[in-house]
Design brief:
The chain is of the alpha/beta class and 238 residues long. It has one domain: Rossmann fold, CATH 3.40.50. The strands form two sheets. A five-stranded parallel beta sheet has the order 2-6-1-7-8. It has a four-stranded antiparallel beta sheet with strand order 5-4-3-9. The protein is built from nine helices and nine strands.
């Protein structure tokens, strides 16, 4: 039986985690898990319900018993609320910014961590986020940490956000990323840091295919038989 390991990719916004994780999942036939999408989902729902994003008690009440529908395959990660797929809405700039606020709260982090661990209990996943190799999956067989210069990350994120807001300036995007980096690195609950075993890759001057090749080289050192037929998992619980 082929090994079905857990591969984690951590790093700050704009470092290329999502692109690389999706490509690796497709190549290996693994599931792609996006922890950031779950934080954005909480922020989106809380904003929709006009909850205070800094109020842990209100968010804890929201999450108690809340079971949004989820599905994942190597091509993507999809979320539904009340029968509507909301995945495309979660990449809007306002939602991304709000997600970093709710992500510092222990009830939210616990809710996200629990769901990710359930998804990964049989292995065969590529999971990306900010604390996956350090907190969520410390036992992961292969860990990566992607980073890039702030200016490069800001340019990437601005290209993405301009689909929703063409008025965003490079300076504004860079400042927002710097602020988020600081929040993620200094929060009391699961701060963003490099796992001791992680391979650190600077993606500033690399394209996604070059990063993927570096990742595959490490994966095949640790999991030489990684790969296999495509898997699909659906957990539509709401």
């Amino acid at each position: 039986m082929q090994p079905r390991g857990i591969i984690t990719i951590d790093g700050p916004a704009g470092s290329g985690k999502s692109t690389v994780a999706k490509l690796l999942a497709a190549i290996l036939g693994y599931l792609y898990l996006d922890s950031g999408a779950l934080y954005r989902l909480v922020a989106w729902q809380a904003t929709r319900l006009r909850l205070d994003l800094a109020e842990a008690r209100a968010l804890s009440a929201l999450l108690e018993g809340w079971q949004p529908a989820m599905a994942s395959d190597p091509q993507g990660f999809h979320l539904w609320v009340d029968g509507q797929e909301v995945t495309p809405l979660l990449r809007e700039p306002e939602v991304s910014q709000a997600s970093s606020r709710v992500a510092v709260l222990p009830p939210v982090r616990g809710w996200v961590t629990e769901r990710l661990r359930v998804w990964a209990q049989n292995g065969g996943v590529v999971a990306e986020g900010r604390d996956l190799g350090t907190v969520v999956f410390p036992q992961a067989e292969v860990k990566f940490y992607l980073d890039a210069a702030l200016e490069t990350r800001a340019a990437r994120r601005r290209r993405e956000w301009q689909k929703e807001d063409a008025s965003l300036s490079p300076e504004k995007v860079a400042q927002e990323l710097a602020d988020r980096d600081r929040r993620d690195a200094t929060r009391a609950e699961a701060p963003m840091r490099v796992a001791a075993e992680a391979l650190v890759i600077d993606t500033t001057d690399l394209n996604p295919q070059e990063v993927v090749q570096q990742c595959l080289a490490r994966i095949r050192e640790v999991l030489p038989e990684a790969g296999g037929p495509e898997r699909k998992l659906e957990m539509k619980t709401g």
